[in-house]
């Protein structure tokens, strides 16, 4: 989209004059009205934000967060990724990743200016997801030509997001859900759903072995006609330590007094 359109005369407003909830951005001191989003824009923004915020490398992401790029320029990308902060008010500087959804009625001239201001302010990647025409995302980087990715392609942001994001996940709820699940599993320490299933199978095998040993202890004592008190039965059944159960199994083959099982 190139550089911002020149504005030789700065506008009268500063970023610190805007309040939370004001429906304006600022470009070189000039107010830019931001109308409420239509249902499609709002839904797509929420979908994209969930996909991006769930990435394991993202510590902070926001929707419509205000970034004071200069004292007279305040921009609020639809979705943004930046370093976490406890500071209140507008964030100083630019997000590392900014995403804009462009639907019917979008002011294309201001969109060009906004992308240019974000890149000039320090944004590494600016994505424009087009809601009209073929499903596609325009990728803007400082000093680089615009690249366009379509359905079936992946979007990568080295150093910002760990995982590539399918273009479809920024538009389609089902594709977004799959991507969010992958990201959340990685946040929990799993490589993916297959790793969770494998752990479940392993845990099931361990539980089956544990129950088998516990039942073998009681069966062996019963076969030796040794009466086992109820409290001892409960202790054996509740034990989760396989090594301890194996020790008791060996003891059950030798003892003559059930009270000595736990010695």
Rg measurement, Å? 30 Å
The biggest sheet amounts to:
6 strands, mixed
Report strand %. 15-25%
Proportion in helices = 25-40%
Q: Which descriptor suits the 3D outline?
A: elongated
At the fourth level of CATH, the homologous superfamily of the largest domain is tt1808, chain A
**Topology pattern, helix = H, strand = E:** EEHEEEEEEHEEEEEHHHH
Strand order of the largest sheet: 3-6-8-9-10-11
**Category by helix and strand content:** alpha+beta
CATH topology of the largest domain: tt1808, chain A
CATH class of the largest domain: Alpha Beta
Flag low-confidence runs. none
Level-2 CATH architecture of the largest domain: Alpha-Beta Complex
Number of helices: 6
Region (Disordered): 1-30
Protein name: Putative restriction endonuclease domain-containing protein
Biased composition (Pro residues): 1-11
Domain Putative restriction endonuclease: 19-158
What does this structure look like?
The chain contains six helices and 13 strands. Helix content is 36%, strand content 18%. It has helices at 39-53, 108-121, 173-187, 193-223, 230-238, 242-252; strands spanning 24-27, 30-33, 61-63, 67-70, 73-75, 79-81, 91-92, 97-102, 125-130, 136-140, 147-150, 154-155, 165-166. The chain is α+β, with helices and mostly antiparallel strands and 263 residues long. The strands form four sheets. It has a six-stranded mixed β-sheet, with helices on both faces. A three-stranded mixed β-sheet has the order 5-4-7, with helices on one face. The chain is elongated. It has two domains: 15-189, tt1808, chain A (Alpha-Beta Complex), CATH 3.90.1570; 194-260, no CATH class. This is Putative restriction endonuclease domain-containing protein. Residues 1-30 are annotated as: Disordered. Residues 19-158 form the Putative restriction endonuclease domain. Residues 1-11 have a biased composition (Pro residues).
């Amino acid at each position: 989209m190139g550089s911002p359109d020149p504005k030789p005369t700065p506008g009268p407003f500063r970023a610190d004059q805007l309040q939370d909830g004001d429906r304006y951005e600022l470009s070189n001191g000039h107010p830019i009205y931001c109308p409420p989003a239509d249902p499609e824009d709002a839904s797509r923004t929420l979908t994209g934000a969930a996909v991006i915020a769930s990435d394991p490398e993202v510590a902070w992401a926001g929707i419509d967060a205000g970034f004071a790029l200069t004292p007279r320029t305040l921009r609020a990308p639809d979705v943004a990724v930046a370093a976490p902060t406890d500071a209140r008010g507008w964030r100083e500087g630019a997000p590392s990743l900014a995403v804009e959804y462009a639907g019917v009625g979008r002011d294309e001239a201001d969109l060009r200016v906004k992308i240019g201001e974000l890149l000039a302010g320090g944004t590494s990647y600016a994505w424009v997801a087009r809601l009209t025409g073929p499903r596609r995302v325009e990728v803007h980087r400082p000093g680089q030509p615009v690249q366009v990715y379509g359905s079936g392609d992946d979007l990568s942001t080295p150093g910002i997001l760990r995982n590539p994001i399918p273009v479809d996940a920024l538009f389609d709820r089902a594709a977004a859900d799959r991507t969010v699940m992958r990201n959340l599993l990685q946040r929990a320490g799993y490589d993916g759903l297959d790793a969770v299933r494998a752990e479940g199978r392993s845990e099931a095998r361990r539980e089956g072995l544990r129950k088998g040993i516990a039942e073998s202890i009681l069966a062996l004592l019963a076969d030796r006609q040794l009466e086992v008190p109820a409290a001892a039965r409960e202790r054996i059944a509740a034990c989760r330590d396989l090594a301890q159960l194996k020790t008791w199994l060996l003891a059950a083959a030798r003892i003559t007094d059930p009270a000595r099982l736990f010695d």
